Amino acid sequence: MTNRVDAYWQFYIQNQGVGKRNLTKLWRNNDLDAVAMFGYVPTTMKEKIKYLAFKNIKTGEIKTLKVTTDGTDNLFYYKQQRRDAERDSSLRHTLADEPYKYTDLNGKHEGIGFTAWVSDYAVMNEYRDRLLTPGEQYYMYFASDAKGTFAYEVDLGNVESVSENGKTYDQAPTKVTKADESYDEALQGKAILIVQNQFNGSF
Fold first, then answer.
1. From what superkingdom does this record's organism come (predicted)?
2. Alpha carbon of 124 to those of 91, 97, 199, 202: distances in Å?
3. Is the dihedral of CA 32, 38, 43, 48 positive or negative?
């Protein structure tokens, strides 16, 4: 890091999980009573992540939720503070310019450029049009098609869980956690989505 602006940029994007994990946040829209998810992946993964897949741990049934990666990148900073900075794209350092080198559940990653992804909203409550059912747990991964064909793991990096709207693990009705030794060995360390009724306590 060479200056204060770059230091703040690194602090901000790492706080968002860029280069650390590929799931940043679960967001419940209270008006829709539905949940969306978003995060960041290396640009090399962009063309393969078309859906999030949710495999019911009890039944094996797979549900999918569409993911968008086009027009989602809006993080940048100006490398120079000039009056014409907004008109000169060469002065912007964006996620597409960000170098990376790290290892996660999907292997080693090295290159330049991240892409943001965001899912559609999904109903995860006791409604007829629900995608996922309260009281169930789902192995969650990125899929290349609506059938749920595996593409990449959802990786939480160095955090143990991500809960909706920044709530604590116990407060949140939807949360993603790393499978521990209580799960099947093939799932351990992978992303598990836990769905509860919105006003319930711990699972």
1. Bacteria
2. 43, 36, 12, 16
3. negative
